[in-house]
């Protein structure tokens, strides 16, 4: 697997470009993405699926930079979109409607009308919504999202299957809770054609067993529906954030997928397409957030290293207690110090090194004012979840390709931030 960074003369370089040059040219803080890493992860996943009819719907919520979308379009990707504006951005990037699957949440009637008018396939996740869709568009094609009564993920906030979850039409072995027969009734009464069955059980899953169970269960449900064109097993493949975590083992999962699909195809009597919806796996490792040290403070308990970024740029440590590896990009090795890396926002929780309970120290090469810290694995759910909290602008985004850095989104300005006030 291609790595996004190298260490040369004790300094971090990203795709062959020195961090000090990046900061000099584009300023700080800065999101930097390595194009070859994105391509490598897409290809890794594509080739790991041992089945000829497959589609990878990139979950653009992970990172919706237009240039990254265009790169994935060129590679043959499809799109998982969850809002109308995601659909519009995907169309704007050049994705044809038939390569977009819309999995909406609480979709409004007028939004359904727009999607259907644009020939976007709608994937429906509740009986109420299915009934609404059936009344508005009888006789049309549809796909349903199933909650298989189990989920997975790196944090409770991102588990999207099981009884605590708001997502999907509920499947259960207990007939009292099983909503599949009701879904079937709605579909038959309105002469809908059920062309797809979908499930997405959560995000940041490193256990292959969850996907093995999911494939078996979804295919057993799929057998009941004769008109299917695809089954979609969602996204959720994790990446190792912590040093002790192991990458997802695709070979274990692939063997099961191959056998189960072969059996399914024999029983079903025709070949259908399988789809996955990865976001994190494709872009997380390709992205690095660079931020400059501006303050250093000693308290009775910690040494806080203050930087020019915060949870307005990368919310994952604050939202989920997530761990991101952090280097001193100017001196990767040297005398080290246990520090807490603190953001520039007016909230105590604004720390890049923390867990769910609060601050956590990290051992890094002693930071000095002006050093640049590299926060790794920030390509997914980094920029896409950013905000203007405390009236701070969003950073610029840069893509590195062929050892050259190119601006792919300019830094926001004060004028950008005030232009909505009327
Ligand atoms: N498909 C659907 C319907 C989804 O809701 C999601 C993610 C994906 C696919 C892609 O999942 P992935 O492959 O990226 O794990 N902000 C959180 C993650 C939230 C994921 C939301 N849905 C985080 O930073 O960990």
UniProtKB/TrEMBL annotation:
The modification N6-(pyridoxal phosphate)lysine is found at residue 61. One of its GO terms (biological process) is lysine biosynthetic process via diaminopimelate. Its EC number is 4.1.1.20. Pfam families: Orn_Arg_deC_N. Residues 38-284 form the Orn/DAP/Arg decarboxylase 2 N-terminal domain. PROSITE patterns: ODR_DC_2_1. It comes from the Bacteria. Pyridoxal 5'-phosphate binds at residues 236, 277-280, 381. The active site is at 346 (proton donor). Pathway: Amino-acid biosynthesis; L-lysine biosynthesis via DAP pathway; L-lysine from DL-2,6-diaminopimelate: step 1/1. InterPro entries: Ala_racemase/Decarboxylase_C, DAP_deCOOHase_LysA, De-COase2_N, De-COase2_pyr-phos_BS, Orn/DAP/Arg_de-COase, PLP-binding_barrel. Its cofactor is pyridoxal 5'-phosphate. Substrate binds at residues 280, 316, 320, 347, 381. It catalyses: meso-2,6-diaminopimelate + H(+) = L-lysine + CO2. One of its GO terms (molecular function) is diaminopimelate decarboxylase activity. Keywords: Amino-acid biosynthesis, Decarboxylase, Lyase, Lysine biosynthesis, Pyridoxal phosphate. Belongs to the Orn/Lys/Arg decarboxylase class-II family. LysA subfamily. This is Diaminopimelate decarboxylase. It comes from Thermospira aquatica.
